[in-house]
Design brief:
Layout (H helix, E strand, L loop, with lengths): L13 H14 L2 H13 L21 E2 L7 E2 L11 E4 L6 H8 L10 E3 L5 E3 L6 E2 L5 H6 E6 L11 H18 L8 E3 L17 H10 L8
Parallel strand pairs: 1-5, 3-7, 3-8, 4-7
Antiparallel strand pairs: 2-6, 4-5
Helix pairs in contact: 1-2, 5-6
Pfam families: Amidase_2
Catalytic activity: Hydrolyzes the link between N-acetylmuramoyl residues and L-amino acid residues in certain cell-wall glycopeptides
Enzyme class: hydrolase
């Protein structure tokens, strides 16, 4: 996803746009008020990025970087602009390759931060500081990290021991990075997101086992 720039190529921050919009409102008439109102509606779509970014860098050690289409997420500066206090668990209703393919497709308009394969391999497609369109709820997108899992909600065999353990390590690391409690209030299924019409991870996802595994992981705290 390309950054918003001025005509001279300089990146425009969300804060600059808001301040500029307010100033225009003070110095002009109806047209300026209309412009300010337009900025108020669109401010959350624009980048306000201060944190350094390195191409190909991952937040989770050992994850494979496979970038999602920029149409499926938006630039942010989390947790400076949005507090991260949730992890949302998804099941793709397909394979690992299916998930990667659709998250790289700009027409899909959705992506999770991570995808976990049956054998425990993890791919990161969106940086944690950015907002991935995964939950079907703007507030939850802004406040959460989304983890997609290979498999089908109707097939218990989809959820292997390797997958549970790798995903639990990932979730524990996310919780450590952002001081998220390791409990069912803060680690939720897609089905629990307000307004969603999804049912994943489904009745075969073993929440008791998963939360035990997440709590058992000991993670060295790193600055974020």
């Amino acid at each position: 996803m390309s950054e918003t720039t001025t005509g001279g190529g300089r990146r425009v921050s969300r804060r600059t746009l808001l301040i500029g919009g307010s100033a225009a409102g003070l110095g002009a008439g109806v047209a300026a008020y209309a412009a300010r109102d337009e900025l108020a509606r669109m401010w959350w779509r624009l980048p306000g990025v201060d944190k350094p970014r390195k191409a190909g860098a991952v937040d989770q050690p050992g994850a494979e970087w496979i970038p999602a289409s920029g149409a499926n997420w938006r630039w942010a500066d989390r947790p400076a602009d949005y507090v991260i206090d949730r992890v949302v668990i998804h099941v793709v209703q397909g394979s690992f390759d299916d998930a990667v393919r659709v998250f790289k497709d700009p027409g899909h308009r959705a992506a999770a931060h991570y995808v976990v394969r049956r054998d425990g391999h993890i791919a990161q497609l969106v940086r944690e500081l950015d907002v991935a369109f995964h939950a079907g709820n703007r507030s939850y997108n802004e406040r959460s990290i989304g983890i997609e899992h290979e498999g089908f909600v109707s097939e218990p065999s989809s959820f292997t021991d390797a997958m549970y353990r790798a995903s639990a390590r990932l979730t524990a690391s996310i919780c450590e990075r952002y001081d998220i409690p390791r409990d069912r209030e803060h680690i939720v299924g897609h089905v629990e997101v307000p307004g969603t019409d999804h049912t994943d991870p489904g009745r075969h996802w073993d929440w008791d086992r998963y939360i035990r595994l997440v709590r058992a992981v000991r993670v060295a705290r790193t600055a974020k």
